[in-house]
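Standup, Tuesday
Yesterday: got the pipeline producing structure tokens again.
Today: sanity-check two examples.
Blockers: none.

Example 1:
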Amino acid sequence: MRYDKFTREQIVFLTYASGCGNMAFNFIWAVYLSGRSGWVAMCIGILLTIPIAIVIVYLSKKYPECNIFDIINISFGKPLYIIVIIINAVINIVLAVIILNFLTGTVKIYFLQLTPVWVIMTVILMMAFLFVNNKTLLFGRAVELLTAWYILNYFIGFSLAFVSEFDFKNIFPIFDTTLLKFGQAAYFSLCSASEILLFIIVMVGHMPQTAGNRKSIIKGIVLWSFILSLAAFIMQGVSGSGLLLHTASVGIEISRAIYLGDFFRGLEIFILATYQLIATLRLSLYLYCTWIPIKKLFNEKYSFIILLLISIIIIIPSIKLDSYNKAFFASIFMDYYIILPFVVFIIIIALLGAYIKKKRSGSDVG
């Protein structure tokens, strides 16, 4: 057993967890854009990442044990490699700051009003740090177990929704919007789900050189598409679009309204645990995506110090921002204008580099 590789089963959960980041908080933007059809638009938008993911896996097969940044390094040299990994680091750090503020804002509103922000953020970031600072296989195992846990938590939180609160009148008519607005919601969902692609770009370097990796990634994307759209469908049926659009942490708010008599209440604790697990695991993946390319630049030296410095760089602006609303609009900006364009740029450069290298090899043979 190789401890420096993820297993195929872990790749499914890692792919799923990479999607379940800021999108778990800002998905209400899709509802704002397309109304009752938001859950359908989310499902389609997330699935649209599959062709791009297949291209990334195709590239990685040409260069065993290399991530996409390594391919750029091999093809164009260190100057361009350094530029792209710095941009990658900035993007992942900003996304980490956003999700820390999402979680902290949720916890402060509903549960720990008197706890200082920096305490909550530091505890969550320390947990993520400990997960990443481990062997690759063991990190993957932790993500696998905790992802299964928070999926279970989430649906326990809504376990009585269909029985006590769900109303199909809140669902129909589904397509109460224009085709343009539906398309905008699907496009936003694609942009937001591009965090999966941002992760896969780095993760392919730790995939086993066996068949089935592509299927594992596709399964992870399909699972995230199904779970998020189903969760949005349930929340829509319980509350209608009104609460979805006017409540920051809609999952917690809805779960507080679900009860059975006087003896089955407090389901919001499951949703809080879910948000905490989402934030912790996604933070660990942001750390991973920032750390791996940078430590390769230093030939795997000073790995612990580099990871520690990245964590410090994340915590300082997180504490300074300290705003759920600012984090929300920052996440929308990142989704629309930064993540997907950067991913597409990296793939194009890597494809171009692979093509140039192949032509050179052909010329040398000739």
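Example 2:
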Amino acid sequence: MPKTKPVVPPKPLDPKTQAVVDEFAKKLAERLLEEGVALEELPNIDERVVPLVRRIGNKTLEELAKQKVDSTVKQNEDLGLKVHRSKMIEFEYIFGPVAIESPYMWLKECGGIRPTSELLGLNARGRSELVNRALTDFGAEESFGHASKRFEEHYGWVIGRTSILRVVEAEAVRAEEFVERKIEEQLKIYEASEPATKSDNAIATMLVELDGCEIRTGKLLPAPGGGVTPIRENPRRIRETQWRDVRDGLARPMESKTPLCVSGLKSYPDIVRQLLGVACLGGLTDKTNVVGVTDGGNGLSEELAVQMPNFIHILDKPHLASHLNAAADAAGKSKADRDRWVGEKLEQCHRGNAGQVIDECKTHKG
């Protein structure tokens, strides 16, 4: 039988906080019992408890924000600032939007300030990092419309798909900048280091793979005839579709099962440089043997050979089989002979005798 993972107990609370939690839990359970809990309902009673816990969490955050705003306003009033006007804003926490007062305070000698946004960091229509993290996780896995539905299922309130789109795109830009910065830092260390001392965790053999494909991209442009949309009266736009080349690469030590990956709408020199960077993160040095697997497309193995140390190129098995089948057809072999011959040559390559196969093909006489 498969082993079950041990249950990790929650981090203990300080005694005062634990006492508040215990008291609240007792009162909520008593209230539910007063409303009535049938015996057959008990296995699924969490369906009734979860919405209540969400409301309590939302109310707790609202009260916490109110008290912090009141305290900050009081501190500024002690400095002579006065509240000239105030408005209510919404800030989105994981339990839902919270209404928070945002006063504007002013003093002639120092000017004006909005303590809610400028001192507490609570901006109108802002979101907590926990909310943004959840939106990014869902939005990165599926369409933004489905991500909106999943968020509602998990957290009990709605954020529209276009809002999720903006959050995910912003996080993607941040992630890309972070990855590129880390890669460039590693490449500078690699290029500035002495031979054979380019990493403390040097490895003997690094496997890299590189491939390319086309993806459909698009951008919205003003419609040639102008005009506005019928409902929201936004300017009419059309989508311009363009198929563009994207390159994907991965690198991992031969003994590892977890690769580091790079991908982008980049040229082969640029993507291979990034691939070299992640390989350095994995322990590559100038003494590492780099085994590169490609489909034999023009430019892939050539660029890898330029930038990777001690490079050995290997054609992937599906394309090797395709080339061998083409060679058998060119030699005029029947289907039965072709299948047998290709199988034998693949087995020879698998045993490490690729050079022998190449020589045989070169010397073949039809």
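Quick observation on example 2: The mean pLDDT is 90. The first strand starts at residue 82 and ends at 93.
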